[in-house]
Specification:
Elements (H helix, E strand, L loop, with lengths): L23 E6 H13 L6 E6 L2 H6 L5 E3 L2 H4 L8 H10 L1 H8 L4 E6 L4 H16 L3 E8 L5 H15 L4 E6 L3 H5 L5 H24 L8 H7 L4 E12 L3 H10 L15 E8 L5 H14 L5 E8 L6 E11 L13 H7 L8 H6 L22 E2 L19 E2 L2 E2 L4 H4 L4 E2 L1
Parallel strand pairs: 1-2, 1-4, 2-3, 4-5, 5-6, 8-9
Antiparallel strand pairs: 7-10, 8-10, 11-14, 12-13
Helix pairs in contact: 1-6, 4-6, 5-6, 6-7
Length: 425
């Protein structure tokens, strides 16, 4: 497929701007995924390949995607899964070799799947894993059921947790947010259409960094390095501005974007993608200031992908898009190895020293005699071991500058040694 007109109809591309070494594919899975893929076609996404995957043969026949894949016929006979995501997952596992063929040579995969149903929720994590195994960078946009749909919502949360184990970034799109996105007076069709446009903007920003040459350019290697871990919670938002202070207006709109204020959205990002696109009048100082404010707002670390593109067709308009992800593996503990004494000393807080006036007046008291056994009990008929001499009982605290004395006892010596307890051997 051609990469002329990659995103919007007023965006011009020349062969010199193309990156023919990178392949991207949008994959819609299940009913919601197919609807979103068809929406991408309407948005003139001709620069990337698209694939529709479903167990429902009738739904696939109605899709306008250029590439289609039916699976699970042995289990569903070409009909739906009835909301059984385990059935879809099993069918996808059985036909993973067929799915792999559609992923060969693809560098960037966008997965679109509703997690409340059977096909999308069950198959998306399998396809994400196969895409990662094939070496692709995987971004997923996943509509979630309304919160009052208790059973489907709980199922979606389980599928979401599984998907995060394999995708590089997962952007949940709760149906509860449709009212915020579309406005109080919007119709249902307008709300769902706006949600589809949000997905388009996210994919557009990522693909723009990969395929377009910008004023501040980023290649695919930068993107892969930043999002090379498994994704935990994510953040995604955009803002648009117009006029002499367009960047400032776009930044203000970004900060109040409804997508950034959903309950499950992360407030910080280990990896952050920032794309600013505007006309020829964008100022360098304003670009730098905006990027610094965005980085500070989302507490971004060292993995930041920043791109700035000039589009003559935008006039005095500016668009800002951000996509961030926390690292699912960041909290994993290191190897379970006991620390050596030097590490314990360096990690331990400094010993609290007794006041000099107490040390001057206080004399060391001898250690108390061992506790006597109660009458009626025979002593242990074995030898006992006293561990070590009194002068060596401080262990790793032996090289500390002063002893930690309290009421005549050296608190750096373990209690069982201070009390003269003996162990039977």
């Amino acid at each position: 497929m051609s990469q002329e007109n990659l995103f919007e109809q007023d965006t011009s591309f020349s062969p010199a701007n193309e990156n023919p070494g990178i392949r991207a594919k949008i994959i819609g899975i299940g009913g919601a995924g197919l609807s979103l893929v068809d929406g991408m076609r309407f948005d003139d996404f001709q620069g990337v390949e698209d694939l529709a995957i479903d167990v429902d043969s009738r739904a696939l026949a109605d899709s306008i995607a250029s590439e289609k894949l039916a699976f699970g016929r042995r289990h569903t006979r070409g009909m739906g899964t009835g909301g059984e995501y385990a059935l879809a997952r099993k069918a996808a596992e059985e036909e993973k070799d067929v799915i792999r063929k559609h992923l060969e040579g693809v560098d960037l995969v966008f997965l679109l799947a509703g997690l409340g149903g059977g096909t999308g929720g069950g198959a998306v994590s399998v396809i994400a894993r196969l895409a990662r195994d094939a070496g692709a960078l995987v971004f997923a946009f996943t509509p979630l059921p309304f919160s009052w749909e208790k059973g489907r919502h709980a199922q979606a949360e389980e599928c979401l947790a599984e998907l995060r184990k394999h995708a590089n970034a997962v952007v949940p799109l709760p149906n509860d947010s449709l009212l915020q996105v579309g406005g109080p007076d919007a119709t249902a069709l307008e709300c769902f259409a706006e949600a589809g446009r949000n997905v388009s903007k996210g994919i557009s920003a990522i693909c723009s960094l990969v395929f377009r040459r910008g004023m501040i350019d980023v290649d695919f290697a930068h993107l892969r390095k930043a999002f090379n871990r498994r994704a935990g919670r994510t953040l995604f938002g955009y803002g648009e501005g117009e006029g002499p202070d367009a960047i400032r207006h776009a930044l203000r709109e970004l900060m109040v974007c409804p997508m950034l204020h959903l309950p499950d959205v992360s407030k910080a990002a280990d990896a952050l993608l920032i794309l600013i696109t505007g006309g020829t009048g964008m100022g360098m100082a304003a670009l730098q200031q905006a990027s610094m404010e965005i980085r500070g707002e989302f507490k971004a670390g060292e993995h930041i992908v920043f791109g700035a593109h000039v589009d003559e067709n935008m006039g005095d308009r500016v668009q800002i898009t951000v996509l961030g992800a926390t690292d699912l593996e960041a909290g994993l503990p290191a190897a379970d190895v006991a620390p050596v004494s030097e590490q314990v000393i360096s990690a331990s807080p400094k010993t609290k020293r007794a006041h000099e006036s107490k040390l001057a007046t206080e004399k060391a008291k001898p250690a108390p005699a061992p506790a006597k056994r109660k009458k009626g009990k025979d002593p242990v008929d074995q030898n006992t071991f006293e561990f070590m001499e009194d002068g060596n009982q401080r262990g790793i605290f032996d090289d500390m500058p002063s002893r930690n004395l309290y009421e005549g006892e050296d608190l750096d010596v373990p209690a069982y040694l201070r009390r003269g307890v003996k162990i039977a051997v």
